[in-house]
Design brief:
single chain; Diaminopimelate Epimerase, Chain A, domain 1; 2 domains; 18-stranded mixed beta sheet; 18 strands; Phenazine_PhzF-like; isomerase activity; PhzF family phenazine biosynthesis protein; isomerase
Length: 319
């Protein structure tokens, strides 16, 4: 029976057992999708990243690596915290140097930057933001699904609409007035899953500007039962999508912040922080020339070998 080196890496933090844990299989060559899914289920992290080599193409501009992401139940196209975890662990191993890299995902090739300190920045897809008509999703229904007082949603709804935002993975973005109300959320997971299906989203990202820490821009919580994650501790893809959302709805008076700091995970006792940069190119936002980058630190908390059965073997995967 073969073994594969397998890591658990805590992303968007520099403290073990905080932030968002991701599984990472640094060498997944030869593993098919079914075995990847079974490994992800065995590890139990919200997402596990599987890295394989990429064949050079004729133009010499092939990505450095191919990555696939699996929750315990499904494959997803993009995962910010598992990407940060993967490149931070490769850097810690000495497998890559600081600098520019290119990662091949299901949504295309994404630029990755690793700083000298090991912080990983992931350039995401150009943001798309579609506001949701209150007639299609009112505060009462949304509040019932999230277990939040509908008044906490109406208070901010006039200035900050509910929207579906994406930088590669769509989320239903829901503004909430105060942190106390967001902390009281007690979602009906079946209702949240139905909303995710209705709006073609991976999950719901609820946020408030009423953050715990003075240097944080906002506090967020992510509920994604549709992809097997009831609540995600710290979510890179959702934070990037929210950065695009905040730019699209002109959420800040004056200049847009150079960097947004999203805090998350405190209600799960796994605090972490995602840094988001939203930049306009020479064409300006009116031409859709907007880029979003998500950054964070990560630390390896577990490094071991996983025993994996052959493809036609029904034995349980053992750690």
């Amino acid at each position: 029976m073969e073994t594969r080196r397998t890591l658990l890496v805590d992303a968007f933090t520099d403290d073990p057992l905080a932030g968002n844990v991701a599984g990472v299989v640094p060498d997944a060559a030869g593993l098919d999708g079914d075995r990847m899914r079974r490994i992800a289920a065995e590890l139990g992290a919200s997402e596990t990243a599987f890295l394989t080599p990429v064949e050079e193409d004729g133009d010499g501009d092939a990505a450095d690596r191919r990555i696939r992401y699996f929750t315990p139940t499904d494959e997803v196209d993009l995962c910010g915290h598992a990407t940060v975890a993967s490149y931070a662990s490769l850097f810690a191993d000495g497998a890559i140097d600081a600098g520019e890299h290119v990662l091949r995902t299901n949504v295309g090739d994404l630029p990755i930057t690793v700083t000298e300190s090991g912080r990983v920045w992931m350039r995401q897809e150009p943001p798309t933001v579609e506001t949701v008509d209150p007639a299609d999703l009112d505060a009462d229904r949304l509040g019932s699904a999230l277990g939040i007082d509908p008044a906490a949603l109406r208070d901010v709804g006039a200035d900050l609409p509910v929207a579906v935002a994406s930088t590669g993975l769509p989320f239903l973005v829901v503004p909430v007035n105060f942190l106390e109300r967001l902390g009281e959320a007690d979602p009906d997971m079946r209702a949240v899953e139905e909303l995710s299906a209705e709006f073609d989203a991976a999950g719901v990202y609820a946020f408030t500007f009423d953050a715990l820490e003075a240097d944080s821009t906002l506090h967020g919580r992510t509920f994604a039962p549709a992809v097997g994650v009831p609540e995600d501790p710290v979510t890179g893809t959702a934070s990037g999508a929210v950065g695009g959302y905040l730019r699209a709805v002109d959420a800040f008076e004056g200049d847009f912040p150079e960097e947004i700091r999203c805090e998350q995970g405190h209600f799960l006792d796994r605090p972490g922080h995602v840094r988001v940069r939203v930049e306009e190119g020479e064409g300006g936002a009116e031409d859709g020339d907007v880029t979003v980058a998500v950054g964070g630190d990560a630390v390896v908390s577990l490094d071991g070998e996983l025993r994996i059965p052959e493809e036609d073997d029904d034995e349980i995967i053992e750690a």
